[in-house]
Design goal:
The chain has 130 residues and is mainly beta. 8% of the residues lie in helices and 45% in strands.
Length: 130
């Protein structure tokens, strides 16, 4: 990809013990018809939401330059306790303004977050989690 083409990624954000899934346009050009497909399904919100099939991942008609859209997946402890997939492979697809297609595959290994210590916002002085 060159600097004059849009570039879109799928990212997993770990923040204060929570996992977020994000679609991000990391370029200075808009992206169109963005979609993300996963190699295996995964759930969030305590197992009540089929996160991998959210509309967010099926079609974003327009993703502005430097824009991120993210959704809460789950508390990391809850996600791992349910034995959800620790390795996510995301096939990211998008188009340019003139319709040129782009895609790439991004792999995330969420297991790296299983032993990360963090401080919760409510308990900033004594809330270290395992």
């Amino acid at each position: 990809m060159d600097e004059f083409e849009p570039a879109v990624i799928f990212d997993v954000v770990f923040e204060d013990g929570l996992l977020f899934a994000a679609v991000r346009n990391i370029s200075s050009r808009p992206a169109y018809r963005v979609s993300v497909a996963f190699d295996k399904p995964f759930t969030g919100l305590g197992g009540t939401q089929k996160t991998s099939t959210l509309r967010l991942f099926r079609n974003i008609e327009f993703l502005a330059p430097q824009k991120e859209i993210r959704t809460l997946v789950d508390a990391a402890a809850s996600y791992f306790a349910r034995k959800e997939p620790s390795k996510l492979v995301a096939d990211v697809r998008w188009r340019t303004a003139d319709g040129k297609r782009h895609s790439h595959t991004i792999t995330h290994d969420l297991a790296i977050y299983q032993q990360v210590a963090y401080v919760t916002r409510e308990e900033t002085h004594a809330g270290l989690a395992p």
